[in-house]
Amino acid sequence: MTPVGSALVITAPGINCDAELAEAFSLAGARPVLETLQSLRRNPGRVDRHRWIGLPGGFSYGDDIAAGRVMAALMRRDLYPALAAAVRRGVPIIAPCNGFQIAIQCGLLPGPDDGQSWPETPAPPSVALRSNRSARFEDRWTSVEYPAESRCIWTRGLVGEGPSAVLPSAHGEGRFTTDEDTLAALEAGGRIAVRYAAGENFNGSLGAVAGICDASGLVLGLMPHPERYLHWNRHPQWTRLRDADMQGPPPGLAIFRNAVEHVAAGV
Fold first, then answer.
1. Would the CA dihedral through 38, 255, 108, 194 be positive or negative?
2. pLDDT category, 267, cuts 50, 70, 90?
């Protein structure tokens, strides 16, 4: 597959899913480019070269203070304007796990309300990702659902049914929390992109929310790791799946293909 553009993968000390995120973009048809946060802070204009952006999972800066807090603070100060400008010009951004924690704290999510422009400076977070209900790190595969009314371009067309409708998660601070009014607004605006299926909400997230998007549908943050499910044989019970369950790309790869196709269609 000939790449239709480059995807920026922002990495930093402690990040451990940058290679997986790069592979996901590559398999979906984009050319991944890994850059350190430090180099981008020195030259934020480099963000403008890319058509997709990924904030990988891991333990950025050792998750000192709190998960993603240090990297988010650096991005709020030096990189937020470049990232907000990228969204304004139509660049899809994905932020799994630690990336989701960073995206919330640096002001990328939930983002401005529908019809409002991106502010020049980041707004205070209106949602948070707190410690899991179990108060410990959880590493497991869970069944998920993709609300049909979601405006997220990354999850468009995905169906949360059958034994293949799962994603892997690995985090200690993934419990989605907010106030009831904000949750209602996110739901009404089609900004809930991924939910844990019934009985699978292991971290205690409000509304079983596993991922949200901004009002444009371009910015997706989620606690599961789609970049770890790019091949059917990554499924924990893949040898027991029927051929009918493995038609088309795995859900993780489908998410990245959606974003690549979205940009390619607008060329």
1. negative
2. low
CB 102 within 8 A of CB 68: yes
Cα dihedral 266, 45, 36, 104 sign: negative
Q: Are 254 and 165 in contact (CB under 8 A)?
A: no
Helix (H) or strand (E) holding 230, with range, is none
Which residues are the active-site residues?
97, 225, 227
The CA distance from 25 to 256, in Å, is 6
Strand (E) positions, 111-246?
A: 128-130, 138-145, 166-171, 175-177, 192-196, 209-213, 219-222
Bridge partners (DSSP) of residue 251 are: none
CA 104 to chain centre: 11
Instruction: Give me the domains of the chain, ranges plus CATH numbers.
Output: 6-265 (3.40.50.880)
Q: Are 90 and 263 in contact (CB under 8 A)?
A: yes
pLDDT digits (tens, 9 = 90+) for 197-207: 999 999 999 99
